[in-house]
Design brief:
Helix content: 10-25%
Length: 243
């Protein structure tokens, strides 16, 4: 099912508030907003979107099969599901995942993901999965360094609601592969990982470095080897990609 609302602070916040009242949406039911007044991204960033032109949506899963220490599995499934679906739309373009879950085409950001997990006891009570994809917007004014939309890439317009539902379905297919196919999903994730095994510039602990991404450890942290041979492990917010 897909619920469409005209405007909301953020779709993730809307669902979290619903869950706090005891109203538990069905797993995978999609909440689609035409506009967000306070859309949230990773690192506390805001998300720019013209009304009705892009995908702004969230849904809930109840991952009782996944332990809190393995919650990065959810990120794998979401990132792969989104890129699975988009690859059918832009098959000839260099689609990738910038760790942990931004969606890129070449050096341009097409979309982002915000996953918020609620833990209860020794398990995950629920995960709210929000994703935004630039679809029909062609002018970006926020000062974000590298946005791009499907319309800019292909010269075509798309129906954001049906596209969002298709992406949700692709995410759920990957989600249902967990945890049994975790290792296989991780290998596919590496094959799509932005700057994987390439020497590139990063900001780490306030210092500019050059390093190559080796992979992701069991906690979802980035593992790298610097150009001078040092081994690094970086959690989210400890390292920043430089362009």
């Amino acid at each position: 099912m897909t619920r469409i609302i005209e405007s909301v602070t953020s779709t993730n916040s809307f669902l979290i508030e619903e869950l706090s009242t005891g109203n538990r949406p069905l797993e995978g039911d999609l909440l689609f907003a035409k506009f967000q007044t306070g859309g949230r991204g990773q690192r506390g960033n805001s998300w720019e979107s013209n009304k009705g032109e892009n995908i702004l949506c969230s849904f809930v899963v109840y991952p009782t099969q996944i332990s809190p220490s393995d919650q990065f599995m959810i990120t794998l499934a979401v990132s792969l599901g989104i890129t699975d679906h988009l690859a059918d739309i832009i098959p000839s373009l260099p689609l990738g995942i910038k760790w942990p879950n931004d969606i890129y085409v070449g050096e341009k950001k097409l979309g982002g993901v915000l996953i918020e997990n609620s833990l209860m006891g020794s398990g995950i009570d629920y995960s709210v999965i929000g994703f935004g994809i630039n679809v029909n917007q062609t002018l970006f004014l926020s000062g974000a360094p590298n946005p791009v939309s499907l319309a800019q890439l292909t010269g075509k317009e798309y129906d954001p609601v049906s596209l969002a539902a298709g992406i949700r379905d692709s995410i759920m297919k990957r989600y249902y592969q967990l945890p049994e196919q975790h290792k296989q999903l991780k290998m596919v994730y590496y094959s799509r990982l932005f700057r994987f095994q390439q020497s590139a510039a990063f900001l780490f602990e306030g210092n500019k470095i050059r390093a190559a991404i080796n992979g992701i450890d069991e906690y979802g942290r980035l593992t790298l080897t610097t150009d001078d041979g040092s081994e690094l492990v970086a959690a989210f917010k400890e390292i920043e990609f430089l362009f």
